[in-house]
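Re: beginner question about structure tokens

> Can someone show what the tokenized structure looks like for a real chain? I only ever see the sequence side.

Sure, here's an example I had lying around. Input first:
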Amino acid sequence: MSQRARRSRRLLTGLFSVIAAGYVLPVAVVVINAFKKNSFVKTETFSLPDAESFAGFENFVKGMTFGNYPFVKSVLYSLTITLLSVGLILLCTSMAAWYMARVNNRFCRMLYYLFVFSMVVPFQMVMFTLSKTADRLGLNTPWTIPVVYLGFGAGLAVFLFSGFVKSIPRELEQAASIDGCGPIRTYFHVVMPLLRPTMISVGILEIMWIWNDYLLPYLVLDRNDYMTIPIHIQYLQGSYGAVDLGATMALILLSILPVVVFYLLCQKHIIKGVAAGAVKG
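And the corresponding structure tokens:
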């Protein structure tokens, strides 16, 4: 390796190390302050807990028992919304992508470009109209809001699935048709198993998005009856707007820990699925 190449590698290593530190720093601040007393969170934000400032698990207990709305209930609502939404997105978008890739007429190509275009439309442009429409159609509960998430998550999912479907040999589906399989059986018995790498990557990306989403549930759900974890944390305040930062940091840590662990365990599947779904277009 030449000296110029080594110098470029060191420069890139240093640059990406700084970028990585910028992403890790907020998480480190949350972890550190989750175990501090509230007064020390405000005055010694970036210092490690010591004998005087260490609060143990007091912040976690305080955060989970604050107010009249149980934190466990918020966890269940977030889990319900995430699982239903991701399942609906994976099933509907994979079937749609398979159909559009195989039919490939003018209508399907136009529909595909509309899905791709939806990825660049900012949520803020449609949020007020969306909240009113969701309320009129009864999509304002944890069991119906997955329909709304399907609309917003379909763009990326269809894009990745379509790219992968185009790499599947048509002969496999033709052989299934000769054996008597209709379109539904062909999809579930032939196409879906082949889509597994892309399904895993899309599922991971959608889980991280929906689990951490604050704005859509805040606008659509009835907050008196249904609170997801981000909404619950936002309402963690006392009289006159006073916020217990220690308890807030503790709940933020509890909310991000599952998705961080999940991502670390599944990150290799994201790379494989994205590469498989985006090479062919």
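Each token stands for a local structural state, so reading them left to right follows the chain. The mean pLDDT is 85.
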